[in-house]
UniProtKB/TrEMBL annotation:
<dbReference type="InterPro" id="IPR006895">
    <property type="entry name" value="Znf_Sec23_Sec24"/>
</dbReference>
<dbReference type="Pfam" id="PF04810">
    <property type="entry name" value="zf-Sec23_Sec24"/>
</dbReference>
<keyword id="KW-0479">Metal-binding</keyword>
<comment type="similarity">
    <text>Belongs to the SEC23/SEC24 family. SEC24 subfamily.</text>
</comment>
<protein>
    <submittedName>
        <fullName>Protein transport protein Sec24D isoform X1</fullName>
    </submittedName>
</protein>
<feature type="domain" description="Zinc finger Sec23/Sec24-type">
    <location>
        <begin position="361"/>
        <end position="399"/>
    </location>
</feature>
<dbReference type="GO" id="GO:0090110">
    <property type="term" value="P:COPII-coated vesicle cargo loading"/>
</dbReference>
<feature type="compositionally biased region" description="Low complexity">
    <location>
        <begin position="94"/>
        <end position="117"/>
    </location>
</feature>
<feature type="domain" description="Sec23/Sec24 trunk">
    <location>
        <begin position="438"/>
        <end position="681"/>
    </location>
</feature>
<keyword id="KW-0597">Phosphoprotein</keyword>
<feature type="domain" description="Gelsolin-like">
    <location>
        <begin position="901"/>
        <end position="975"/>
    </location>
</feature>
<dbReference type="InterPro" id="IPR041742">
    <property type="entry name" value="Sec24-like_trunk_dom"/>
</dbReference>
<dbReference type="GO" id="GO:0008270">
    <property type="term" value="F:zinc ion binding"/>
</dbReference>
<keyword id="KW-0968">Cytoplasmic vesicle</keyword>
<feature type="domain" description="Sec23/Sec24 beta-sandwich">
    <location>
        <begin position="687"/>
        <end position="770"/>
    </location>
</feature>
<dbReference type="InterPro" id="IPR006900">
    <property type="entry name" value="Sec23/24_helical_dom"/>
</dbReference>
<keyword id="KW-0653">Protein transport</keyword>
Length: 1033
C-alpha cells in the first residue's frame, strides 16, 4: 500500500491498487485497451487529521459562459453552500487496531493487477447489497471519528454542491405528501443544493476530537451508526406493523432527529423543475458553439442556427479537454448520443432538402466531410478550407459565389448547408447500390400459426388488425398513397407463402417444407401494392385463421423465417422490413433450433454472461446477411415460458428493428398494448439500408459505437433500417491535442433510402468547446447523456465480463470523476465534505439506479428473458428514454387541479413520498402503475373507477374505465400525455397498498434500497464519498 501513498487501510478499504483502473470507455478489461492505466491520482501524503487533506487549486476558474448548467440559471455571488457531509475515511491516524479477517468474511483478498481484477479489487465490497459482496452494514461498524473543522475559502461564484457535517431535521411524517419532492427545508431554486451528513465511515481508530464542531452533538456515534443502518427493502417509511424490525419508523412516530434528511441531498425532481423554470417554453438557439442545451425533460423550441438540435445530438460534455492526459485524469467519457431521425415537433422547422442535381453534394477532397457551416471560404470565394482536416479545396464552378465584406458568401442564408446544423442532400447514383436508383421498400408480415396461437385467438387478432394498419402505411408527405409493397407468410414447422396478385379471385398458398435450404417459391404476386390488391389481401386475412383452425402443430422454426423474408427482399432488389409475430422457443429441426438453457445455477457466477449471448452463431450470420441486403426485422414476442430472447432478439437489434414482448399474453388484458405498438411501429418515420459515418476535426476521433448497428470496419455504422426512436452512442478519444480556438467539431452523415425509394444524405453538425481547464469540462457535463453512455457500455460488457466487475468499474469511475473535480476544481476544504459539480450533482442517484437495474444484478425472481430484453432495449435508447427508464416519473394524482391541463408536480421515487391517503401514477417508458393508498379518498375512487370503495376496485384491469367526470378525464389525459412520443406502449397495472403485487411496484422506487439487492441513494452517496476520500488521501 505504501507505494500508493495510503496512510492506512481500514478493513473496508481493500487493496487500492486500482486507482487508475481502466475507465468505462466501452472496454471492460479488454487487454488491448488496458495496458496503460490512465491518469493516476497523485497521493497527497500523510496529513494529520486536522490538516486539510486535499491539495486544491487556489483559485478555480469561474463558471465561464455556461451559466445555464444542469440546474438552470445560477445566481452569482454566493459562496458555495456547504452541505452537512460524509465523514472522512482515514482522515485520522492509521487504524492498526484489531483487524480480524474472520469478522469480514465477504471481503475478497487483494488479487493480481490485471486490468479486470485490478478493478475488481478496488471496488471491493460495498455490498450495501449493491456493489460487490462485502461491506458490513454501517450499523455494525465501529463508530467513525468526529469531523474535521471545515475550511471556508473566500466567497466566489457558486459551482459545486457540497456535503459536510451538521444536524438535520427530518421532513414531516410520511402520512402527508411533503410537497413536490421538496421538504420545507429545501433550498431556494437559485442556491446550490446541499448534501447533509452522510453516515460515518467504518474507521477503527478514534483519535481525540480536534478543535472545531463535532458532528451531531448530543448523541453517541453508535446511535448515529445505527440510524444509518440498511433499511428494509423498499420500505423506508411504510405502514404500521408491516416491517416489525423498524417499528418507530413504520408506525409514523417521529424518527430520531439527527437522521440524514433525504430532502437535503440533491433531488432529481428539483433539478428538473429548476431547469424547466429557467429554460422551459423558451427558444433555444444553436448559434453558440459548446453551449449546454436544456435538459431532455424541459420543453423548449429549438431554433437551428448552425449547430444540430439537441433532439438529434446530445453530448456527455460540451467542452472537451485539450489533451488526452486531461481526459484520462478526469475519466469523464467523451461521447455523443446521436438520434439521426428524431421526431421534430410541429412548431419547429423540418429539415431542408438540398438538391445539386448530377453534381451531388460538395465535399472535402481529403476527409470527405460534407459542405457545412464549419467550412471557411477564402480567395474571393474560389476556394474553401475544410473545418475538419484543414485541407484547402477548390470550389466547384457550379457552386461559386462571391464573398461579402466579412468573408461570408453572399448566399450564406439561402443555402441550408452553409447556415444550418442539420439538413439533407439528394444523393446521386454514385451513392446507390450497383449505381442504380433503389426500389421502394417492402413490408413482409410473418405470422406464427402454431396450435397455441390459433387457440388463444392471437392469429385472428393479428389478421383483423392488419386490415386496419395496412391503410396507414407510411408515405412521402407529398404522395397520396404509400409506395411500400407488402407480402405475407405464415409458418409453424414449415413455411407458407401467399400469392395475392390483384388479378386473382382468391389468394394462393405455396408450402416450403425444406426449412434447411429455404427458397422463395414465387416472385410475381408475393410483394404487391396494397391499394391494388386490397380485396385479395382482405380475403387472405379472413382465411388464415380458418385454414389453420384444426392444426395441432406446436413446434416452430425461426431462423428459416428470417431467411425466407430476406431472400424475398433480395430477389425483389429492394430494402424492407420483416414483421414477425412469434410465441415459442423454436425447437423444430432446422437451422437456428434452440434448447431451453434457462439455468438459474449460472446466476452470480463467471458463466452468467453466457445467458446474454446467443446460443448459436446462426443468428449472428443471419443478421450480417440481413444488413448487407437492407432487411430490417421487428419481432412481436408472446411468450408463456422461456423463449431465449438473447438469441431471438439478436437479429432485430443488429438490423435496426425493434423487439416487443408481451409475457403470458391474454387477449382481454393485453391486446390493446400490442395493437398500439403495432400501429405505432408501422407509422414510424424510418430510413432503410443506411450507413452512418461520424467525422471529427483533427485531434480526436470516434472509437466506440453502441446501438442497433453492424460494423464491418472501424468507421462505417451499417443499419438495415433506422427509425425515429433509435439512437447510436459514439465514444471519442484523443489522437492529438485539441485547440481552444478551433474547438472540437463533429459531423454525422447518414446515407439512406426513404420510404418513397429516394436515396438521401442526412447531415448533422455540432461544434463543441475545448479547454485546458478541468472546471470547464465539468461545468459543461450533461448527466442524462453520461448515464446513457455508461448504461450502454456496461450492458455491452455483460456479454464478456462478470457483473460484479462491471458494477465495481462503474462505482470506481463515479468516484474517480468526482474525486478529480474535488481535487482540481474546488477550494481547499475539509476532506469530509462531498463536493459535487453543479452539472453532475444528481449523477450519483442516476448511477445508483443503473447499478440496481436487473441487467447488472442477478436475481432468481427476474427471468433471464426479461433481463436480456431490457438489455437490448437500452442499447438503442436515446437520452430522454434512458433518463425516464432509470429514474421513473412519479406523480401524485390526488393533488390534481381539475381546472388545469398541467401535469401535477412529480415527487421523488421513494416510498417515503407515498401516503395512505394518496393515489400515485408511476411510469418508466415500459410500465405504468397506478398505486392506491388504503385510505384513498372515496370520491376519487368513485370518480376514476366508478365503484363505491377501495375494496371494490378490480386490480386486473389494464385500461381505466371511461367515466364521464373530471377526475377520470383528467387522469386519462395525463396518462396520454406521458405515453405520447414514447417508443413502447406502457401497460397499466393497478396496485393496492399492502397487497402482494405491490412488490413489483416497489422495485421502481429507485431512491430506496433495492428489493433484490442494491443500496439506497443515501447509502450509495456514502459509499461514493468513502471511495473519493480514499482516492484523495
Amino acid at each position: 500500500m505504501s507505494q500508493q501513498g495510503y496512510v492506512a487501510t481500514p478493513p473496508y478499504s481493500q487493496s487500492q491498487s486500482g486507482i487508475g483502473l481502466s475507465p468505462l470507455h466501452g472496454h471492460y478489461g479488454d487487454p488491448s485497451h488496458a495496458a496503460s492505466p490512465p491518469g493516476m491520482m497523485k497521493p497527497v501524503g500523510n496529513l494529520g487529521a486536522t490538516a486539510p487533506v486535499v491539495m486544491m487549486s487556489p483559485s478555480p476558474p469561474p463558471p465561464g459562459p455556461h451559466q445555464l448548467g444542469q440546474n438552470g440559471a445560477q445566481a452569482s455571488g454566493h459562496s458555495p453552500q456547504r452541505f452537512p457531509g460524509l465523514l472522512p475515511v482515514n482522515s485520522a491516524a492509521p487504524s492498526y487496531a484489531q483487524y480480524q479477517p474472520s469478522t469480514q468474511p465477504s471481503y475478497p483478498s487483494p488479487v493480481s493487477t490485471s486490468s479486470v481484477t485490478h478493478l475488481g479489487s478496488q471496488l471491493s465490497a460495498m455490498h450495501i447489497n449493491s456493489y460487490g459482496s462485502g461491506m458490513a452494514p454501517p450499523s455494525q461498524a465501529p463508530p467513525g471519528p468526529p469531523s474535521v473543522a471545515s475550511f471556508q475559502g473566500p466567497p466566489r461564484p457558486p459551482q459545486p454542491s457540497v456535503l459536510q457535517p451538521g444536524s438535520q431535521v427530518l421532513p414531516p411524517p410520511p402520512t402527508t405528501l411533503n410537497g413536490p419532492g421538496v421538504s420545507p427545508l429545501s433550498l431556494p431554486a437559485h442556491r446550490q443544493d446541499g448534501l447533509p451528513g452522510l453516515p460515518p465511515l467504518n474507521t477503527q481508530y478514534q483519535p481525540p476530537p480536534p478543535p472545531g464542531p463535532v458532528l451531531g452533538a448530543g448523541y453517541s456515534p453508535q446511535q448515529q451508526a445505527a440510524n444509518y443502518g440498511p433499511q428494509m427493502a423498499g420500505a423506508q417509511l411504510s405502514y404500521p406493523g408491516s416491517f416489525p424490525e423498524c417499528p418507530a419508523q413504520m408506525a409514523g412516530t417521529p424518527p430520531p432527529p439527527k437522521k440524514l434528511d433525504p430532502d437535503s441531498i440533491p433531488s432529481p425532481i428539483q433539478v428538473i423543475e429548476n431547469d424547466r423554470a429557467t429554460r422551459g417554453g423558451q427558444v433555444y438557439s444553436t448559434n453558440t458553439r459548446g453551449q449546454v442545451p436544456p435538459l431532455v425533460t424541459t420543453d423548449c423550441v429549438v431554433q437551428d442556427q448552425g449547430n444540430a438540435s439537441p433532439r438529434y445530438i446530445r453530448c456527455t460534455t460540451y467542452c472537451f479537454p485539450c489533451t488526452s492526459d486531461m481526459a484520462k485524469q478526469a475519466q469523464i467519457p467523451l461521447a455523443a448520443i446521436i438520434k439521426p431521425f428524431a421526431t421534430i415537433p410541429s412548431n419547429e422547422t423540418p429539415l431542408y432538402l438540398v438538391n445539386h442535381g448530377e453534381n451531388g453534394p460538395v465535399r472535402c477532397n481529403r476527409c470527405k466531410a460534407y459542405m457545412c457551416p464549419f467550412m471557411q471560404f477564402i480567395e474571393g470565394g474560389r476556394r474553401y478550407q475544410c473545418g475538419f482536416c484543414n485541407c484547402v479545396n477548390d470550389v466547384p464552378p457550379f457552386y461559386f459565389q462571391h464573398l461579402d465584406h466579412i468573408g461570408r458568401r453572399l448566399d450564406h442564408y439561402e443555402k441550408p448547408e452553409l447556415s444550418l446544423g442539420s439538413y439533407e442532400f439528394v444523393a446521386t447514383l454514385d451513392y446507390c447500390r450497383k449505381n442504380k436508383p433503389p426500389n421502394p421498400p417492402a413490408f413482409i408480415f410473418m405470422i406464427d400459426v402454431s396450435y397455441s396461437n390459433i387457440k388463444n385467438g392471437l392469429v385472428k387478432l393479428i389478421c383483423e388488425e392488419l386490415k386496419t394498419v395496412l391503410e396507414k402505411l407510411p408515405k412521402e408527405e407529398q404522395e397520396e398513397t404509400s409506395a411500400i409493397r407488402v407480402g405475407f407468410i405464415t409458418y409453424n414447422k414449415v413455411l407458407h407463402f401467399f400469392n395475392v396478385k390483384s388479378n386473382l379471385a382468391r389468394p394462393q398458398m405455396m408450402v416450403v417444407t425444406d426449412v434447411g435450404e429455404v427458397f422463395v417459391p414465387l416472385l410475381d404476386g408475393f410483394l404487391v401494392n396494397y391499394q391494388e390488391s386490397q380485396s385479395v389481401i382482405h380475403n387472405l386475412l379472413d382465411q388464415i385463421p380458418e385454414i389453420f383452425a384444426d392444426s395441432n402443430e406446436n413446434e416452430t422454426v425461426f431462423a428459416p423465417v428470417i431467411q425466407a423474408g430476406m431472400e424475398a427482399l433480395k430477389a425483389a432488389e429492394c430494402p424492407g422490413k420483416l414483421y414477425i409475430f412469434h410465441s415459442s422457443l423454436p425447437t423444430a429441426e432446422a437451422p437456428g433450433k434452440l434448447k431451453n438453457r434457462n439455468d438459474k445455477k449460472l446466476l452470480n457466477t463467471d458463466k452468467e454472461k453466457i445467458l446474454f449471448q446467443p446460443q448459436t452463431s446462426v443468428y449472428d450470420s443471419l443478421a450480417k446477411d440481413c444488413v448487407a441486403h437492407g432487411c430490417s426485422m421487428t419481432v412481436f414476442l408472446f411468450p408463456s415460458q422461456y423463449v431465449d430472447v438473447a438469441s431471438l432478439g439478436l437479429v432485430p437489434q443488429l438490423t435496426g428493428g425493434t423487439l416487443y414482448k408481451y409475457n403470458n399474453f391474454q387477449m382481454h388484458l393485453d391486446s390493446q398494448q400490442f395493437l398500439n405498438d403495432l400501429r405505432n411501429d408501422i407509422e414510424k418515420k424510418i430510413g432503410f439500408d443506411a450507413i452512418m459515418r461520424v467525422r471529427t476535426s483533427t485531434g480526436f476521433r470516434a472509437t466506440d459505437f453502441f446501438g442497433g448497428a453492424f460494423m464491418n470496419n472501424t468507421t462505417d455504422v451499417e443499419m438495415a433500417a433506422i427509425d425515429c426512436d433509435k439512437a447510436v452512442t459514439v465514444g471519442f478519444k484523443h489522437d492529438d491535442k485539441l485547440n481552444e480556438d478551433s474547438g472540437a467539431l463533429i459531423q454525422c452523415a447518414v446515407l439512406y433510402t426513404t420510404i418513397g425509394g429516394q436515396r438521401r444524405l442526412r447531415i448533422h453538425n455540432l461544434g463543441l468547446n475545448c479547454s485546458s481547464q478541468l472546471a470547464d469540462l465539468y461545468n459543461s457535463c450533461e448527466t442524462d447523456a453520461l448515464i446513457n453512455f455508461f448504461a450502454k457500455s456496461a450492458f455491452k460488457a455483460v456479454l464478456h465480463q462478470p457483473l460484479k466487475v462491471i458494477r465495481e468499474i462503474l462505482v470506481n469511475q463515479t468516484a474517480h470523476m468526482l474525486a478529480c473535480y474535488r481535487k482540481n476544481c474546488t477550494n481547499p476544504s475539509a476532506v469530509n465534505q462531498l463536493i459535487l459539480p453543479d452539472s453532475m450533482k444528481i449523477f450519483p442517484v442516476y448511477m445508483n439506479c443503473l447499478l440496481k437495474n436487473c441487467v447488472l444484478r442477478s436475481r432468481p425472481e427476474i427471468s433471464t428473458d426479461e433481463r436480456a430484453y431490457q438489455r437490448q432495449l437500452v442499447m438503442t435508447m436515446g437520452v430522454a428514454d434512458s433518463q425516464l427508464f432509470f429514474y421513473p416519473q412519479l406523480l401524485p394524482i390526488h393533488t390534481l387541479d381539475l381546472k388545469s391541463t398541467m401535469l401535477p408536480a412529480a415527487v421523488r421515487c421513494s416510498e417515503s413520498r407515498l401516503s395512505e391517503e394518496g393515489i400515485f401514477l408511476l411510469a418508466n417508458g415500459l410500465n405504468m402503475f397506478l398505486w392506491l393508498g388504503v385510505s384513498s379518498p372515496p370520491e376519487l375512487i368513485q370518480g376514476i373507477f366508478n365503484v363505491p370503495s377501495f375494496a371494490h376496485i378490480n386490480t386486473d384491469m389494464t385500461l381505466l374505465p371511461e367515466v364521464g367526470n373530471p377526475h377520470s378525464q383528467q387522469l386519462r389525459m395525463i396518462m396520454n400525455i406521458i405515453q405520447q412520443k414514447k417508443p413502447y406502449s406502457m401497460k397499466l397495472t393497478i396496485v393496492k397498498q399492502r397487497e402482494q403485487p405491490e412488490m413489483v411496484f416497489r422495485q421502481f422506487l429507485v431512491e430506496d434500497k433495492g428489493l433484490y439487492g442494491g443500496s439506497s441513494y443515501v447509502d450509495f452517496l456514502c459509499c461514493v464519498h468513502r471511495k473519493i476520500s480514499q482516492l484523495l488521501n
